Amino acid sequence: MGPLQGIKVIELGQLIAGPFAAKTLADFGAEIIKIESPQGGDPLRKWRLLKDGTSVWWQIQSRNKKSIALDIKEPQAQDIIRQLVKDADVMIENFRPGAMESWNLSPKELQAINPKLIILRISGYGQTGPYRDKPGFGVVAEAMGGLRYLTAEPGHVPVRVGISIGDTLASLHGVIGILMAMHERNKSDLGQVIDIALYEAVFNCMESLLPEYSEFGVIREPAGSALPGIAPSNAYLCHDQGYVLIAGNGDSIFKRLMKTIGRDDLGQSPDLSDNTGRVKRVEEIDQAIGEWTALHSSSDVLKALDSAGVPAGRIYNVADIARDPHYKARDMIAQVKMKDGSLLSVPGIIPKLSRTPGMHRRNAPEIGQDTMDVLKDLGLNEEQINGLIEKGIVA
Fold first, then answer.
1. CA–CA separation, 204 vs 185, rounded Å?
2. Are residues 52 and 112 in the same domain?
3. pTM above 0.85?
4. Is 167 a catalytic residue?
5. Contact, 235 vs 293, CB < 8 A?
6. Are residues 102 and 192 in the same domain?
7. Could you list the mean pLDDT of each consecutive 10-residue stretch along the chain, which spans 395 residues?
8. What DSSP character marks residue 363?
9. Catalytic residue of the set 167, 240, 320, 373
10. 87: containing domain
């Protein structure tokens, strides 16, 4: 049932950052009780392309979860949450800082009920600092974290990555924090609060950006498809108008690449024997590679580079992904049976664990699908639950 079997998680988040963290835990056996608004549930249910009124994205983000519908602003719903955390291991929320406190569900109040509770809080700017109260979405965090400035061709407007990468990076940092806190709890028997800011998760992945500025006053500028300071690593146009990404930046790899393209003179040049020398002549190297790829189809280029042991690949769209044999061989194209019996392709589960792998145990829930069962487990009878339903507090 997975390495996290027996771990109980209360998910109060919505959209991407909090729910993605909970989804990752759910894939590996954690019991996730997702709390949604009775009025429409998680807004992600209506994002992008819909099937039978529900986003197909929902089948990824909420697989393996239970759903109960509570109006969290109502005191009786808050009482239910306090009961749920009594035996919970983790609570996840990604509201704006101060929201949980306004509902009398602050970490201090919840950990007074359950001192072992680990609380993951994901927000745009974190729980402290001068920006804490500003609304923050992933796209803004990507810009503040330094990523958006670099994602452009020189002289053109910076573009977004194309997915909500800031939210996902924050989620993964949150999962790491939860696992570390659970490990530490084995010693202290105490929970703790994990404070994740979207922009900090992005900034944490920005490699040498800050030390280069600190030491040399260098502001890394957009470089399109190239990787500044590492050569050669770029996208090259082939004869069939397809692009091939070539990473020939290892010293021995560079020599093999130059031999393959008929430029052994560059491969054997002492000035180009390491990355420092290659960076100084990167335009010359890129031109030589580009002249070679322009003479050949992308498939022939890849064939030649594979034979030479040079890392290279095509730029995949989702159709390429869906039919790629390597994706299929590693179970990265999974299928979910929908209510109407049709099959929906969804990403498989990572990381790959040898003894206790993650698995798809149940489809994403309908709004409030598990409300009755969860509340009965708390000791409420049907009459009490129906009374809450009549008041619109639960659904």
1. 25
2. yes
3. yes
4. yes
5. no
6. yes
7. 95 96 98 96 96 96 97 96 97 97 97 98 97 93 96 90 95 98 98 98 97 96 90 96 96 97 97 96 97 98 97 96 97 95 97 96 96 95 93 93
8. P
9. 167
10. 8-204+333-390
